[in-house]
Amino acid sequence: MSQIAINTSQNVNINFNTASVGERMLAFIIDLLIRVAYLVIILYLFFNILDLGYLLNGLDSWSVMAVYIILAFPTYIYPLVLESLMEGQTPGKKLMKIRVVKIDGYQASFGDYLIRWVFRLIDVSFAGVVGLISMIVSKNNQRLGDIASGTAVISLKNSINISHTILENINEDYVPSFPQVIALSDNDMRIIKDNYTKAIKADDRQIISKLSNKIKSILKLEIDPTKMTERQFINVIIKDYNYYTGKDN
């Protein structure tokens, strides 16, 4: 399993294990089974439960094909919609503990997921051989869609697990200070905490200051430095995020 160094917005590299070809294929198979199950159910409802098959009588072949395309449409947009809603995961990816991330450290956007989805048409051509070859020969196990969108699929089964890095002990009577933190994602908070932890160990005040300013800029916060230091501010942000998202130990 290879590693990928993701350069964060604070110009700090964080190493992740890339998802293996096997993990990605299993995730694809799980998602494929879900989509097939949907098709079986929707067709059974259409023809047997609702008995709407008569609507196809008398239609030309193009019209019949259009009806089937409409019924199957959710299966086509399945990866695009779910990756956008689940922050780079589908049910298959979630079960395999892998996730789509931007190589530059930012949270992948809908546009990035859209590019991956469009290129999927090429990647799955020739029974998926194109995408498979691309993942095997590329440095970071990227298919063409990943390369075009600047993304990679990482494994969460390691010591740099995104979920684990945002955990923070908070007391039951903890009172949060910044509800604006709900605008951040798990990936944002993982980057914040990882960079902050490294900066504290190295006593790198410059990184701490840049990180603090970046958070304030994103959340549009103005903090009186005489009432809260930059270190205190970042600590509170991390605790507040865990408080609002219910991520505790």
Automatic annotation (TrEMBL):
<feature type="transmembrane region" description="Helical">
    <location>
        <begin position="117"/>
        <end position="137"/>
    </location>
</feature>
<feature type="domain" description="RDD">
    <location>
        <begin position="18"/>
        <end position="150"/>
    </location>
</feature>
<keyword id="KW-0812">Transmembrane</keyword>
<dbReference type="InterPro" id="IPR010432">
    <property type="entry name" value="RDD"/>
</dbReference>
<protein>
    <submittedName>
        <fullName>Transporter</fullName>
    </submittedName>
</protein>
<keyword id="KW-0472">Membrane</keyword>
<dbReference type="Pfam" id="PF06271">
    <property type="entry name" value="RDD"/>
</dbReference>
<dbReference type="GO" id="GO:0016020">
    <property type="term" value="C:membrane"/>
</dbReference>
<feature type="transmembrane region" description="Helical">
    <location>
        <begin position="59"/>
        <end position="78"/>
    </location>
</feature>
<keyword id="KW-1133">Transmembrane helix</keyword>
<feature type="transmembrane region" description="Helical">
    <location>
        <begin position="25"/>
        <end position="47"/>
    </location>
</feature>
